[in-house]
Amino acid sequence: MTELTLITEHDGIIDIQMNRPPVNALNLEIVEGLHQAIDDHTNNGAKALMLSGREGIYSAGLDVKKLVEMNADEITVFFKSFWGLMAKISKSPIPIAAAITGHSPAGGAVLANFCDYRVAANGSFKIGMNEVFVGLEVPRVIYKGFARHVGEKHATNLMVHGQLMDFDFAHEIGFIDELVEPNQVKSRTLDWLKNLTQLPPLAMNRTRLNAKSEINNLFDEQLKTMSEGYAEGWFDDEVQSRMKYIAENL
Question: How is the beta sheet containing 56-57 ordered, strand by strand?
């Protein structure tokens, strides 16, 4: 059986690589695997974490083919775990950086949204949160997390229209922090984390979380209602129609 996460250590910094070929589609198993990997290495004294993808793909987002087959109870379990993963990344007591190795639409972009830093591969790739395009609302915490990086104007325009961005534009507006050659994405992400973790850790991590306090307070307020509301919205006729169309044409 394929390991859904591949773990590599670099002097106390852990690379958690999503490994679900061909496109790292997010189903319950890989989401729970990411929960476990983050918990294990955080609790075992890691200085920082890197969340990375495969060559040419970070994550294509939710596994639509699997999700459209789920009943109401199963979809509720999935969204509770997925929303919990977003919150865990955002509220992490140690830094988490995204090594965006390729395409990162929808759920992939959402995970990167809550990381502390985003390094991406230079190339003809797309990233963004296109929930509206498939009939799902963008919850406030995702919107606010995105606006924190790119500003309210860009966040509103892109999210209301459900638009994906090419990496050059995402870098220009501040969502992607650095663009590097594809073979340098992981090494540059690692360098950023190494530099950060050389600072006094208590002061650095407290300040990092202070900077994200508005977002993390929203998670505390909205986590339960978000996961339940998204599960209910999943069975809207229009959403189901669009999702089934996407699944059939993947």
Answer: 56-57, 102-105, 126-128, 165-166
Q: What are the residue boundaries of the structural domains of the chain, listed by start?
A: 5-197
| Amino acid letter, 222 | Q
Task: Kindly report, residue by residue over 89-137, the tens digit of the pLDDT.
Answer: 999 999 999 999 999 999 999 999 999 999 999 999 999 998 888 788 8
Q: Please provide the DSSP assignment of 210-233 as one string.
A: HHTHHHHHHHHHHHHHHHHHHHHH
- Binned at pLDDT 50, 70 and 90, residue 245 comes out as low
Whole-angstrom Cα distance, residue 8 to residue 175? 26
- Integer Cα distance of 187 and 195 in angstroms: 12
Looking at CATH, the fold of the domain delimited by 5-197 is given as 2-enoyl-CoA Hydratase; Chain A, domain 1 (3.90.226)
Spatial separation of the C-alpha atoms in residues 222 and 130, rounded to whole Å: 21
* Cα distance between residue 22 and residue 57, in whole Å: 9
Average pLDDT, the chain: 92
Task: Tell me if the bond preceding 182 is cis, omega within 30° of 0.
Answer: no
Candidates 39, 136, 54, 151; CA nearest to 87 is: 39
Question: pLDDT tens digits, residue range 76-101?
Answer: 899 999 999 999 999 999 999 999 99
Instruction: Return the SS3 of 22.
Output: coil
